[in-house]
């Protein structure tokens, strides 16, 4: 679980930091994947209606 959030965090850093050669800066496809990943984790593990691994 922690690794999923860590990977999304790293993706968000790539999206938001302007460095020379960073082709992911403000990349719409990456942005959409970050949002989809967060939504999936919420739906499957943290929402009140999910029956995910943590029994939420």
UniProtKB/TrEMBL annotation:
Residues 2-56 form the Polysaccharide lyase 8 N-terminal alpha-helical domain. Gene3D superfamilies: Chondroitin AC/alginate lyase. InterPro entries: Chondroitin_lyas, Lyase_8_alpha_N. Coiled coil: none annotated. It comes from Clostridium gallinarum. This is Polysaccharide lyase 8 N-terminal alpha-helical domain-containing protein.
